[in-house]
């Protein structure tokens, strides 16, 4: 967190409305991009963004350490998206003992259009898990805690998502190469 962010959050906690407006302007692209990566729907991502900023406005004083804002924000975005996805797609989860982890996708994968298109083809449970890991940077244990599933299931879903993404991207490359 930058000094600017720290000062901004501190001012918001004292009731400074213009600081909240600056926060919204500054963080809207990040919140929207993160929400879209999880929900894969423009309107839903916009709704999540608005809901997240409303939650920030209502509960920023509960944040005891302004330096923890970014982590707090990531969890707020993630939990808001998960709540919406659970309402949209209520599905039970299963456990798996698969412990093998596929190679890393790379740090700039969220900006790659081909990967975004491939992500849209994954089921929501695989998409959520891979986005939490690769885009949000959560550990396996943190993902398990957020989703309420065993760590083994998280690893299995990440492995499966990476495998499916690799296949989808290879198919896209073949299709684009033949045009």
From TrEMBL:
Query: Cell division among the record's keywords?
Result: no
The RNA polymerase sigma factor 70 region 4 type domain sits at 114-165
InterPro entries registered for this protein in UniProt: RNA_pol_sigma-70-like, RNA_pol_sigma-70_dom, RNA_pol_sigma70_r2, RNA_pol_sigma70_r4_t2, RNA_pol_sigma_r2, RNA_pol_sigma_r3/r4-like, WH-like_DNA-bd_sf
CDD domains annotated for this entry?
Answer: Sigma70_r4
Q: Single Gene Ontology BP term?
A: DNA-templated transcription initiation
RNA polymerase sigma-70 region domain: from which residue to which, for each copy?
Answer: 23-88
| Keywords attached to this entry | DNA-binding, Sigma factor, Transcription, Transcription regulation
Q: Is-annotated flag, keyword Transcription regulation?
A: yes
**What are the recorded GO MF terms, alphabetically?**
DNA binding; sigma factor activity
Q: Which NCBIfam families match?
A: sigma70-ECF
Q: Which family does it belong to?
A: Belongs to the sigma-70 factor family. ECF subfamily.
Q: What is this protein called?
A: RNA polymerase sigma factor, sigma-70 family
Q: Species lineage, top-down?
A: Bacteria, Bacillati, Bacillota, Clostridia, Eubacteriales
């Amino acid at each position: 967190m930058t000094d600017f962010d720290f000062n901004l959050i501190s001012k918001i906690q004292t009731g400074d409305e213009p600081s909240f407006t600056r926060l919204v302007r500054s963080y809207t692209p990040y919140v929207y991009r993160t929400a879209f990566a999880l929900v894969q729907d423009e309107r839903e991502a916009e709704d999540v963004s608005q809901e997240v900023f409303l939650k920030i406005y209502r509960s920023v004083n509960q944040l005891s350490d302004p330096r923890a804002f970014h982590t707090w924000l990531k969890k707020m975005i993630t939990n808001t998206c998960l709540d919406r996805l659970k309402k949209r797609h209520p599905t039970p989860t299963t456990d798996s003992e698969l412990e093998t982890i596929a190679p890393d996708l790379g740090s700039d994968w969220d900006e790659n259009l081909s990967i975004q298109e491939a992500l849209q083809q994954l089921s929501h449970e695989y998409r959520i898990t891979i986005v939490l890991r690769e885009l949000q940077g959560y550990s396996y244990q943190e993902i398990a805690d957020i989703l309420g599933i065993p760590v083994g299931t998280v690893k299995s879903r990440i492995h499966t998502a990476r495998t499916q993404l690799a296949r989808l991207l290879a198919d896209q490359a073949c299709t684009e190469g033949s045009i």
